[in-house]
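Figure S7 source data.
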Amino acid sequence: MYIEVTGAAGSKNAVDRIVCMRLGPRVLIDAGSASFIPPEELNEVDAVILTHAHLDHILDLGFILDSMVHTRNRPLVVMGSEACISIVKTHYMNGLIWPDFTKIETAGAPLLEYRVLPDEVWVELPGGVEAMAVPVNHPAGARGFLFRADGGLMVYSGDTGPTDTIWKRARAEGTPSGVFIEVSFPDSSRSIALASDHLSPSLAADELRKLNSPDIPVYVFHMKPWFAGEIAAEADVIHPGTVFLNQGDVIPFR
Ligand SMILES: [Zn+2]
Ligand SMILES: [Zn+2]
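Tokens for the predicted zinc ion complex:
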């Protein structure tokens, strides 16, 4: 199993893509920039798990569904917390902003199905990977995830401010193979990070200390593009050997 980065940024411009990761060939984590995935590879995707309903994480969901209307013969299952799914249904795929694809059938089945993920329970996903949703400190129904496959465990913070439960849950599962953690702002904007339920380098370092696994690989995503240089200069504050994710990166589970 692997996580492949389609987009890793916390906002978009001509070069930086918003958050979308591929959890093996059959699952997407968020769909911000999912329309950059080639159609033949999108056709292999069975499920999208959403960390939350903010626009930078759901934007391209509408566009990939649109592209699937005439090619797809099975539903795309969109998973998330109850609040997240409710927001997507009510405020995005509502027949006003964009079509309600649960009402569009292809080959006798709806193109879109929703599935609410329970908290703090392991759930099997397509392709031989399991996920556990854990509430984090961020709006719009936000969850972080633990993923396990091939004997490896990955922690994926999603968008969050300082939080505790996901680190506690991860500790209970053993030593992770790696941590994906958001760092949206540099420390010069630490107060804005806190006010918007995000992390800066020193705040991310405080979070990683809660995991108590000092030697594990740390992968950083969700940088605001205009701060990417300033955040990169603070890499050592986050964790020794911090890796900043870029589109195209592939991180194996072990
Ligand atoms: Zn967010
Ligand atoms: Zn975000």
